[in-house]
TrEMBL record:
Domain Thymidylate kinase-like, chain residue ranges per copy: 5-202
EC number(s) stated in the UniProt entry for this protein: 2.7.4.9
SUPFAM superfamilies for the chain: P-loop containing nucleoside triphosphate hydrolases
Keyword field: ATP-binding, Kinase, Nucleotide biosynthesis, Nucleotide-binding, Transferase
Name of the protein this chain belongs to: Thymidylate kinase
Gene that encodes the chain: tmk
Annotated positions binding ATP: 7-14
Length: 217
């Protein structure tokens, strides 16, 4: 099974990835968890360039770097794992590209769809959990955890996070547009719920998906 998690930074994706991995492993399943960008030596170098540097990167270059990282991860790690029957849980996938580079940066959505298809080798997630959070709540959550003054431009934020409030409002609107287009694949969950509540909703939806999938076979 190929499961992806989506949402703006601060939505709690990493916490839910860990919880879901533990749950599936307790059921005796082999589980691989990964993040984008990253996962291979080349992809990790791309991640550092994209997120941890403050270089001025053009929108097209940003898109192609994210896509190059994805293509590397798909071919070297994810595709072999899925072929071996492993469950793969991925923190971000091509929906992030559509939301961030498409709706956030304003790049052409048809072009993005073509690039996403190439970089993902045509593979789509079985189910995607989108943790919905406003940019304001995400920022408040991030800075309250570190007892820092609230600001949308800060050395505590990575290059993407420093893109500003309006950018993240467009990204969130993009996620909602993606959800509207693919409600059969994407499950939206309120990220303001407690982590245990979110986990229960994930397991419930995952169970429903598995039952429906079994019925189709």
């Amino acid at each position: 099974m190929f499961i992806t998690f989506e949402g703006i930074d601060g939505a709690g994706k990493s916490t839910q990835v860990v919880k879901l991995k533990r749950h599936l492993q307790e059921r005796g399943r082999e589980v691989l968890t990964l993040r984008e960008p990253g996962g291979t030596p080349v992809a990790e170098q791309i991640r550092e360039l994209l997120l941890e540097s403050h270089n001025d990167i053009t929108s097209i270059a940003e898109l192609l770097l994210f896509s190059a990282s994805r293509a590397e991860l798909m071919e070297k790690i994810i595709m072999p794992a899925l072929e071996d029957g492993c469950d793969v849980i991925l923190d971000r996938f091509f929906d992030s590209t559509t939301a961030y580079q498409g709706y956030g940066r304003g790049l052409n959505l048809d072009m993005l769809a073509d690039i996403n298809r190439i970089a993902s080798h045509g593979i789509r997630p079985d189910i995607t959990f989108y943790l919905d959070l406003t940019p304001e709540d995400a920022l408040m959550r991030k800075f309250s955890e570190k007892s820092l003054p609230l600001a949308f431009e800060s050395e505590e934020l990575d290059r993407m996070e420093n893109s500003g409030l309006e950018f993240y409002q467009r990204v969130r609107a993009g996620y909602h547009a993606i959800l509207e287009a693919e409600p059969q694949r994407i499950v939206m969950i309120d990220a303001l719920l407690t982590p245990p509540e979110i986990h229960r909703k994930i397991l419930s939806n995952l169970h429903n998906f598995e039952v429906t999938s079994d019925g189709k076979n």
